[in-house]
Specification:
It is built from 5 helices and no strands. By secondary structure, it is mainly α. It is elongated.
Length: 98
């Protein structure tokens, strides 16, 4: 959960407390135990599989897919330079107010 949602280990521990009944946890682990789990080969394999599965588009339901987890389609290009140029163009076309 910490890796998937980009949480710190302490925040992940808090979420475990919050959702322990819904997730069926009988034990809530300390943030240090969560930290140590990342070095376990089985935990890393599970994490890799979860990320692999969540980065695959749902067949016939998703037509635009962002494999980098941003949710933006791969054909979509947006950056600071383009946005800045649009802002400058729109400012130049405005009439000055008196």
């Amino acid at each position: 959960m910490a890796q998937y949602f980009g949480l710190s280990n302490r925040v992940a521990q808090g979420y475990m407390l919050l959702f322990k009944e819904k997730l069926g946890f009988t034990t809530v682990y300390s943030y240090k135990t969560i930290e140590r789990a990342y070095s376990d080969i089985e935990v890393r394999q599970v994490l890799e599989k979860v990320f692999e599965l969540t980065n695959v588009p749902v067949a016939d339901l998703e037509h635009e897919f962002g494999p980098d987890a941003t949710g933006h389609a791969t054909s979509c290009k947006q950056n600071y330079e383009t946005d800045r140029a649009k802002d400058q163009t729109s400012k130049a076309t405005r009439k000055p107010s008196i």
